[in-house]
Amino acid sequence: MKIASWNVNSLNVRLPHVQQWLAEAAPDIVGLQETKLEDHRFPGEALAHAGYASVFAGQKTYNGVAILSRGQAIEDVQVGIPGFEDAQQRVIAATVGGLRIVNLYVVNGQAVGTDKYAYKLRWLDAVHDWLATDLERWPKMVVLGDFNIAPDARDVHDPEVWNENHILTSTAERDALQRLHALGLHDAFRLHEDEAGIFSWWDYRQAAFRRNLGLRIDLTLVSDALKADAIASGIDREPRTRERPSDHAPAWVQLRG
């Protein structure tokens, strides 16, 4: 079973890219972020024609998340973080084929020390507390999404710039990610790959993709119960080469069985 995460940076703009990638990569489950569509505009019919059922939570212009499934029912859908009041559509979770899929579009945080940064840390604390409980109910869990955190120096093109005081790499953000790992959620990419310089996001400016000036901020985390079954993982750079691409590339994990 192949499970993927992709921040599409507007599903309205990127729908042809998504359709092409679904046909070529044939993932079984996909979490999309930054769909940027109100629910009545979500292209469920077009995705169904491609062979995928979908559930989604969107809003105009910003945010928006969805889960797609090829051939298996999507059940027990939850939108938002329980007990955390938030108007932004950044979270959707569902059960697919016996797996609990949690799709996150983590807050960016703007800059260290800002109100948006404080909101990001509160948001991550709420996610931690929620998942700590839900892992007891659903031990077979995959938490995926755009985390807006590069886990360590291997995951940034310039560690001197992207340091402990910079947004996306600050100590507090990385500590929050480590708290999720401590729940028994493992970075599937690092189960198979130690190499530095493999990224999932590149700025549109300064020819960043061509120069590989990127960050690895799109993650797939597998729970303890799935760790042994995570037999492969990676990042698919090809969609980033297309005309008018998302600034993110899909990250994926392959589970045995």
Q: Can you put this structure into words, describing what you see?
A:
25% of the residues lie in helices and 27% in strands. With 257 residues, it is an alpha+beta fold. It has a six-stranded mixed β-sheet with strand order 3-4-2-1-14-13. Helix 1 links the parallel strand 1 and strand 2. The longest helix has 23 residues. The termini are close together. The model has no long low-confidence stretch (mean pLDDT 98).
Total beta strand runs: 14
Overall helicity: 25-40%
Kindly report how far apart the N and C termini lie: 7 Å
Anisotropy-based shape = globular
The DSSP helix count reads: 6
- C-alpha Rg, in Å? 17 Å
Mean residue pLDDT: 98
Strand portion, in percent?
Answer: 25-35%
- How does the major sheet shape up? 6 strands, mixed
Class by helix and strand content?
Answer: alpha+beta
Regions with little confidence, pLDDT below 50 for 5+ residues:
none
Strand order in the largest sheet: 3-4-2-1-14-13
N to C succession of SSEs: EHEHEEEEEHEHEHEEEHEE
